[in-house]
Structure formats: structure tokens, C-alpha cells
Fold this sequence. Notes:
The protein is built from ten helices and five strands; from the N terminus they run H-H-H-H-H-H-E-E-H-E-E-E-H-H-H. The chain is mainly alpha-helical. The strands form two sheets. It has a three-stranded antiparallel sheet. It has a two-stranded antiparallel ribbon with strand order 1-2. The radius of gyration is 18 Å and the shape is globular. The two termini are 18 Å apart. Bound molecules: protoporphyrin IX containing FE. It comes from Polarella glacialis.
Amino acid sequence: xxxxxxxxxxxxxxxxxxxxxxxxxxxxxxxxxxxxxxxxxxxxxxxxxxxxxxxxxxxxxxxxxxxxxxxxxxxxxxxxxxxxxxxxxxxxxxxxxxxxxxxxxxxxxxxxxxxxxxxxxxxxxxxxxxxxxxxxxxxxxxxxxxxxxxxxxxxxxxxxxxxxxxxxxxxxxxxxxxxxxxxxxxxxxxxxxxxxxxxxxxxxxxxxxxxxxxxxxxxxxxxxxxxxxxxxxxxxxxxxxxxxxxxxxxxxxxxxxxxxxxxxxxxxxxxx
Length: 272
Ligand code: HEM
């Protein structure tokens, strides 16, 4: 069977899955949290390795990853069984490719995927903790820099990457935050930035006790970390640029996103 598999059918099956299940946003979040634990600061290691697929311990049990080993991997299961479990592609490469296909399907930029991320073989190959590696939505400017600078990202990258919140939703039963950042949460465009600049948000507390912000007119929300992008001039200039120029957002997003997906990886190749 393995010899009938090829790259084009894999991409097509991911495209179909994203369209049928409207699961583009969670596939982006899966890749981001696999790669986003990387740090080269006081903490080290954490290159993307699909360690989240083990749920006995480690990344698959991190609170920050709630919904990813369950909802995202269940959605991806038919593709995983056919292509990753037969050895055609590593799980980590499949997660990276799925996010990039999803971005495109939702109207976002073309993102090149390179291949060769080795998979963790067990949960012990996880990083030790999410603390200091993955961001908390109820924190602010200093926290954003503390998390992203040791991954090699500057202020512009932080703003561009945050723009992924133009798609998707917060789920009470996963993060404890609630709502979508934009009205069309399946369209990848620069609406996140235009909303940040144009809407008035009011503080609220979710049923789970989490602080967040909501626009009473549109019903869309923002996390404290999203609003932090307006508080600091070095962030805000980029919010303004991306709100005015979607091409500039896409171009900077692709550079930062590819770097994120490849952080700590060695010897990646252009072709699967
Ligand atoms: C800047 C700091 C960030 C914080 C604090 C943050 C926090 C969150 C939270 C709390 C959720 C809701 C999860 C849920 O309840 O299902 C979420 C969703 C999401 N995040 Fe982020 N995030 C950040 C950065 C990023 C980055 C860098 C990306 C990708 C480039 C990203 C992509 C997404 C996507 C696509 C969703 C929607 C998932 C879905 O609809 O299931 N986020 N984020």
C-alpha cells in the first residue's frame, strides 16, 4: 500500500479534511504548540517532534495543549494512519504540513514546508514543562518578550505571529477563554489587526474565571496578550502596518512562521 502514497494525494486529503471539518485553526495551533516549546535561552531544546501524541506524561498532558492531543489528533487520524503510521511522513512533518495547507485553504499565504523532523518515540522526549515556553493569555508585554525572544523572535515577529488569531476560537473547556477574535473565524486575513485598532473592548471574566476582553458590538474577543500589542509602541507600529497592508502581514508572517516550524531542526530537506 505504501508505494501508492504520494505527496500530492497527501496534500489533497489534508485540504479536503480542512474544508469538510472546518479544522484549519486547530491544525495551525497543533503545529505552533509542537514547535513553540523550543527555547534557546535559559531553557533549551524543544524542537518540533510530535511528542504531544503521547498522553501518559509530558507535552500531551500540558494544560496549554488542552484539546490538541484529543480534538486535533482525532480529526487528523485518518490522514495520520494512512501517511504517518506507514512511515511515508513523520508525525511532526505531517503536523507542520497540515498547518501550512490549512493556512492556504483558509485564504492565507503560501507557506513552504521543509521535511525531516524526527518524531519523539515516547513522552519522555517532551520538554519538562510549558512554563517559560508557551505563552499565557492573561499576561502582558513583558511576558510576550520573555517567551518569544529566547526562541529567536523580535518584536515584529511577535506581532506577525499573533496575527494567526485572525482564525479560530477560544474554547471554555480547553483554555478557559471564550470566543473568536473575528466574525469569520475560518478566513485567514488581516482582520485581527483591523479589529485591534478599530473596536472598543471591555474587560470581562469568563465562566472559568479567566480575564479577557470583548467587544459588545461585534461579540468578538481579545486576550490580554493580544491587547498588549497596542500598549507598547514597538509592537503597535507593526499592528498599524499589518492593518493597513495585508501583503506586509502575510510576508512577515510567513518568515516568522517558517522559522517557528523549523526552530532547532537540523538538515531539513525541500522535498518529502
Ligand atoms: C502570543 C501569545 C499567544 C497566546 C497567549 C495564545 C493563546 C491562545 C489561546 C488561549 C487560545 C485558545 C485555545 C482554545 O481554547 O482552544 C489560542 C488559540 C489559537 N491560537 Fe494562540 N496564542 C498565542 C500565540 C499564537 C501563535 C504564535 C499562533 C500561531 C502562529 C497561534 C495560533 C492560534 C490559533 C490558530 C488558535 C485557534 C485554535 C482553535 O480554533 O481551535 N497563537 N491561542
